[in-house]
């Protein structure tokens, strides 16, 4: 149940962020839902590999390189989902930061951990 709730929160936040950020475009809420699912799968499979490979850069940049990894995963997810486009790395960077921040805020309000 928690997984479904997290996917819905991510899809809703992503859908509304595309209304605010002019460089991120999504066709419909169904597309945002598919994006959230693909992003979740990529976060399970690709993100740990990229974090291990980028560990030296993450240490050198005091953790800031992990933001770049998140933006790359968001760009990759958008490439897999038809109907969603991101106009460049800068927009993916801003979108990934906003998505992470707002999703964690909304997620803590919707389903607080006991």
Give the overall form.
globular
Poorly predicted spans: none
- Helicity, in percent? over 70%
Q: Roughly what fraction of the amino acids lie in strands?
A: 5-15%
The number of strands is 2
- Counting DSSP H or I runs of 4 or more residues, the number of helices is 5
Category by helix and strand content:
mainly alpha
- The rounded distance between the terminal residues' Cα atoms is 15 Å
Strands of the largest sheet, in order across it? 1-2
Indicate the multimeric state. Answer: single chain
Radius of gyration: 14 Å
For the biggest sheet, the summary is: 2 strands, antiparallel
The chain-level mean pLDDT equals 93
Spell out the helices and strands N to C.
HEHHHEH
Provide key terms for this protein.
5 helices; mainly alpha; 2 strands; 77% helix; 114 residues; two-stranded antiparallel sheet
Q: Which secondary structure elements does this structure contain, and how are they paired or packed?
A:
Blueprint: H1 2-20, E1 24-26, H2 29-53, H3 55-60, H4 65-80, E2 84-86, H5 89-110
Antiparallel strand pairs: 1-2
TL;DR of this structure?
With 114 residues, the protein is mainly alpha-helical. The protein has helices spanning 2-20, 29-53, 55-60, 65-80, 89-110, and strands at residues 24-26, 84-86. The model has no long low-confidence stretch (mean pLDDT 93).
Provide an overview of this structure.
By secondary structure, the protein is mostly helical. 77% of the residues lie in helices and 5% in strands. It is built from five helices and two strands, in the order αβαααβα. Strands 1-2 form a two-stranded antiparallel ribbon. Helix 2 packs across helix 4 and helix 4 crosses helix 5. The longest helix is centred in the middle third of the chain and has 25 residues. The two termini are 15 Å apart.
């Amino acid at each position: 149940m928690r997984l479904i709730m997290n996917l819905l929160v991510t899809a809703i936040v992503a859908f509304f962020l595309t209304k605010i950020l002019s460089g991120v475009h999504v066709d419909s809420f169904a597309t945002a839902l598919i994006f959230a699912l693909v992003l979740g799968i990529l976060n399970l499979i690709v993100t740990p590999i990229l974090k291990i490979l980028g560990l030296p850069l993450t240490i050198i940049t005091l953790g800031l390189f992990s933001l770049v990894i998140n933006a790359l995963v968001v760009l990759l997810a958008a490439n897999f989902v038809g109907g969603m486009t991101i106009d460049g790395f800068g927009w993916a960077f801003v979108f990934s930061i906003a998505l992470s921040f707002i999703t964690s805020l909304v997620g803590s309000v919707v389903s607080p951990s006991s």
